[in-house]
Amino acid sequence: MKPDEATLTENGALSRRDFLKIGGTGLVVFFWVGPLDAFQQPPQPYAEAPPSTPTDFNAFLQIRPDGRVTCMVGRVELGQGLQTAAAQLVAEELDFPYDSIDMVMGDTDVCPWDVGTFGSQSMRVMGAILRAATAEARAVLLQMAAEKFNAPVERLQVSDGVITDPAQGKRITYGELVQGKRIERHLTKVPLKPVSAFKAMGKSPQRKDALDKVTGKAKFAGDITVPGMVYARILRPPAHGAKLKSVDTSAAEKMAGAQVVRDGDFIAVICGRPDLADRALALIKAEFDRPQTGLDDKSIFDHILKNAQPPKVMAESGTLADADKLANPLEQTYFHSYGAHAPIETQSALAMIEGGKATVWAATQIPFLMRDRVAQALGYSKQNVRVIVPYVGGGFGGKNNAQNAIEAARLAKMIGKPVQLVWRRDEDFFYARFRPAAVVKIRSGMNEGKIVSWDYTVYAAGDWGAITFYDIPNQRTTTVPITQTAWRNQDNGAGLHPFYVGPWRMPGAITNTFARESHMDILASNAGIDPVEFRLRHLTDKRMRRVLEAATKQFGWKPARAPSGQGVGVACGTFYKTYVATAVQAAVDKRTGKVRVERVVTAVDAGVIVDPEGTRQQVDGCITMGVGYSLSEEVLFSNGEVFARNFDSYEIPRFSTEPKTEVVLVDNPELAPDGIAEPPIITVGAAIANAIYDATGARLYQLPMTPARVMRALKQS
Amino acid sequence: MERAISFTLNGKPARVTVDDERTLLWVLRADLGLTGAKFGCGTALCGACTVIVGKEAVRSCTVPVKDIAGKHVLTIEGLSKNGQIHPLQAAFVKQSALQCGYCTPGMIMQAYALLLKNRRPTRADIVRHMDNNLCRCGDYNRIVEAIQEAAGATKARAS
User: Fold this and answer.
1) Within this chain, do residues B129 and B154 fall inside the same structural domain, yes or no?
2) What are the start-end ranges of the H helices in A416-458?
3) At A12, is the pLDDT very low, low, confident or very high (cuts 50, 70, 90)?
4) Which of A152, A168, A177, A379 counts the most CB atoms within 10 A of its CB?
5) What is the mean pLDDT of residues A294-315?
């Protein structure tokens, strides 16, 4: 396992452990435990943070003489609103105005080390560290003021960065107190504010990035310029596994202003203008040997089942064999096609090498790990590489690597000039580490309206969300070994896939939730029970019951056995400590197979809410992207050639496909804030599948539910 | 063919001497340093590169620079007036109609062209006009609301 996927290795079986030690890398990942966890009582949060995380609050905060505070974090702003939420955290714990906090993010020379921005854990993991650091800084500032005023610290008051001693009528600002110096004093066991005292958190301030983004001032990696910069284009194979047979670069070399550079099969053109680099690249004549694997988007599922290593049991309880004798088993297989992240910003980077030091501006979710990888690629020490991540134009897991940044750095070293490399759309699709195609098999048994056995096997999707939270006495969950859970390893899963695959917004859990929640509806319908009632009969988990009840209440759910003709569906899901339930209204055009999702209601319980508007926005985004993976997004391919090349061959949601969305925030102030940018996406697919069944009696077993698949299902129903 | 092309850019005269088949997007970004218009697809499928030429929203990634000779080009950088952001920009901020922000300049320019023609667009008008501008973060509903709010504000300001 590679270190950058370290914090993604949590699964249901391991999540209750305090620590998860990753073999060989020395990286320790902490998961907060218990209901009253670190967010409430953080005696020594640093001790449990990854070991490379600084333990000095000065690494996170700078009290500036101009009366402002700079907060530095190694994570990046992908659009998820972390810049805003982190500033809210600091404002709260420091008693400082939100508007006077400047965020600096994702710069490896300036910001404290961080593992990366993924897995919806910024609030859970980084937020806890930042809050503790800020609380300590505030306590130190109070102590400094107490000494200056010759007053007991208990007598002092602090508000908006001004400390006052009412008894003496004295006041001092943080900036005056610190005078631009580094604070050398440290304290331990500083208590955090209780949730009930929150002033800055729980509100929705204006996004920190909003003004820059509406005026065009916001800089993305491809917007950065340095003097003498040139633009590159790289020769690409037509298919994965294709080998360069012959190449003729003479015409490109003759083009005025173009330069061809080559290191083995790595061939690039360099130009003073990006569109002229495109023109030069088109002049290169290359022939490739193309692989004949016989694998395509249809045969891939048989290939996965045949080539998967023997699955291993993740979790087991009761006795499946006995239950099987009693119950009439129902066996069903579910399929999920490959999916692409397709952020509107393609992979983009600018690399500059000066005096033996490389600076790379890159659109990546993992600045520190990219620094290490760039250093390795160039043969530099880590100290001589700086990665700066400006605003990132969407990630969704697709920027958990940045091949592009390494390519730009190699080229900059080869030609001795700063190189900008912004991938074309087809390159971004070709090298996207797709969400893996996957298969789930479920064998279940019922007795008197209750599920008595549940035998669940998942191939290739990964194990997140695989273990059921429904009360089923006899159950087993099985998954292929970690070497083939390729989204974690970001490789081809020991040959299981024809290209590299990787994490895609809430990896594994979309596939697993689709399979489980579709199967629940089939069983409910077979038993003649309303699908919500059927789920509640199998749920003792109070938080899951609460989100399901909240979503269906808001939706105005009318209990009925499916198919009722209403076109409604529900699904439940959980990731770590976030709970989600979704209810959907959909209409199916029986002549074309086109599905129109009209309304989606999602209820979420993600602990205490830091930014209600930001949270709603994340849920809305999950619903929108959820409609995409459910109905249209599919990577078609054959023999290593990827047919998804642009937004006409890979259809993402648009204005006209957007449903009416409603978000119910189930606030849970006893719990630390948990991830919100991914979990609400997992329930959308099954809820739509169940709504299609409810509308038509046609059951879909594969994502995406394209018009062609819907038509086939309609014929079979 | 390399030649001098003159046009009006954000209200000021501009002149570039370039290969006239080059695209407006890359001339704006790489030659004129205006990086507000973004590269997204290169084939007029996503709208991230949208700017206004005359009174129309165009996909600058497919417009050859020779086509804009003598014309008025407006980019996101030219939308603020006298230090005041445009009502559309203000509405996008107020409605939080953005996440990663990469599609935002194109969205705002596309909406700007709509409001030039239709001062009181219905929701359906907005969806039809905006449908080829893609937002991967999924802020479509917020963007529609922001455009409706700006339409009201533009109307109020004009009257």
Assistant:
1) yes
2) 425-430
3) very low
4) A177
5) 95
Residue in A204, A223, A231 closest to B35 by CB: A223
CA distance A305 to chain B (A): 32
Strands A438-447, A450-459: pairing kind? antiparallel
Instruction: Residue A225: list chain B partners with CB under 8 A.
Output: 33
Predicted pLDDT of residue A402 = 87
| pTM (two decimals) | 0.93
Same domain, B92 and B143: yes
How far lies A551's CA from each of A4, A31, A74, A571, A584, in Å? 36, 28, 36, 10, 10
Contact B36 A215 (CB under 8 A): yes
Question: Could you tell me the pLDDT band of residue A51, with boundaries at 50, 70 and 90?
Answer: low
Q: How far apart are CA A144 and CA A69, in angstroms?
A: 17
Q: Looking at beta carbons, which residues of chain B come within 8 Å of A212?
A: 101
- Residue B130: give the domain boundaries: 87-158
Other residues' Cβ atoms within 10 Å of the Cβ of residue A146: 17
Domains of chain A by range and CATH? 32-197 (3.30.365.10), 221-290+347-422 (3.30.365.10), 506-716 (3.30.365.10)
Q: What is the ipTM of this complex?
A: 0.97
Residues 17-76 of B with CB under 8 A from A: 19, 22-23, 25-26, 29-31, 33-43, 45-46, 48, 75-76
Percent of chain A exceeding pLDDT 70 equals 93
Q: Does B6 lie at the interface with A, CB-CB under 8 angstroms?
A: no
Q: Does B140 touch chain A (CB under 8 A)?
A: yes
Q: State whether B51 and B110 are in the same domain.
A: no
**Distance between CA atoms of residues A474 and A372, nearest Å:** 47
Which residues on chain A are in Cβ contact (under 8 Å) with B36?
215-217
